[in-house]
Amino acid sequence: MKTKGKIPMRQCTGCREMKNKKEMIRVLRTGEGEILLDATGKKNGRGAYLCFSRECLEKARKNHGLERSLKVSIPDEVYDSLEKEFDGIDSK
């Protein structure tokens, strides 16, 4: 029995658990410094991963995990817009 190679694993910046890359959402910092959600996981830029849960986003906000991973300070307005985008994903 042959396997299909490695399964890419990523660490959630909120709960710090290692999970399958496909089970997570990528938060992206573009070259212009814009921070957004990357649903495809293929856009250019520096990325950090979060579980598909609002709790992980709140933990990442509290422990500054996204700021550490993306190497940039993130204003509250950006976190608020990420929460709105998360709500849009949760309803799908």
TrEMBL record:
SUPFAM superfamilies reported for this sequence: YlxR-like
All copies of domain YlxR, residue ranges: 10-84
Any Pfam family hit: YlxR
Chain segments annotated as coiled-coil in the UniProt record: none
Superkingdom of origin organism: Bacteria
NCBIfam families xrefs: RNA_bind_RnpM
Name this protein carries in UniProt: YlxR family protein
Source organism of this protein record: Blautia ammoniilytica
Organismal lineage: Bacteria, Bacillati, Bacillota, Clostridia, Lachnospirales
